[in-house]
Every structure is written in structure tokens, then in C-alpha cells.
Amino acid sequence: MLELLGIHHIAIICSDYEKSKYYYTEILGFKIISEEFRAERNSYKLDLALGEAYIIELFSFPTPPARVDSPEACGLRHLAFAVRDILLTIGHFESLGLAIEALRVDPLTGKRYTFTHDPDGLPIEFYEQ
């Protein structure tokens, strides 16, 4: 039987590297582990951590195709992050003038959650623990 130990990282290709770098580091609070410009690909690779855990590889490429915008399309549906206080999370986005959806309640768990989007429209969920 295959023994998976956990998720190593999530790779995201962005359309505007500086905008996405700002969003993931300054808005969401990820810490930069390393940043590399790969001249042969005209591409940046940014490794990001949440706390001490390596979580996201953020890539730029010169002309990536647009993301399919249907939330029910095959592929990655959204990223979900656990938060302690969903109302503080909503307040954080509102204080920055950024769009965030209204509070929802998971009918199976009774937990509160909400969604926003990164600069390329990737849905980001915040789920209260």
C-alpha cells in the first residue's frame, strides 16, 4: 500500500508575479523561504511558508493560459486555510478594501467559513476551527 506522509506543497502559476507575491506575503502573511529568477524560462519561483511549514510554490511564466472560471470545472477547486476567528478574517479583508464573501455555515459541521479570491481569481477559503 502506498504510504503518503502529507501534502508537500501547492504550486500556483500567477499572471502578475509582483501582485501575487504581495497578496500571498502581505495580505495572507506567508513567509518567503526563497525567491529565484530562472532566466532560461523567464520565470520566477517563490517558495512560501506558513509558520514553519513549506506550503506554496508561486510561479510566473510569460504567457500562462487563463484559469477556467467555472468553479465546477475539473481540477483544483480552491485552497482552504484554517483560521481561529472567521470574523477577524473577514474584518482583515474589509479593512484593506478587498472583496470577501458573506459568512457561510457548513451544514454538516456547523463551522463558519467564507471565500475570497487571489489576484488571478483562484478561490481561497477560510474555515474557522
TrEMBL record:
The record's Gene3D superfamilies line, in alphabetical order, gives: 2,3-Dihydroxybiphenyl 1,2-Dioxygenase, domain 1
Q: Residues of the signal sequence?
A: none
Q: Name one Pfam family in it.
A: Glyoxalase
Residue ranges constituting the VOC domain according to the UniProt record: 6-129
GO molecular function terms noted in the UniProt entry: metal ion binding
Give the CDD domains listed for this entry. VOC_Bs_YwkD_like (cd08352)
**Per UniProt, which keywords does this protein have?**
Metal-binding
The record's InterPro entries line, in alphabetical order, gives:
Fosfomycin_Res_Enzymes, Glyas_Bleomycin-R_OHBP_Dase, Glyas_Fos-R_dOase_dom, VOC_core, YwkD-like_dom
Q: What's the domain of life for this entry?
A: Bacteria
Q: What name is this protein filed under?
A: VOC family protein
| Native species | Rhinopithecimicrobium faecis
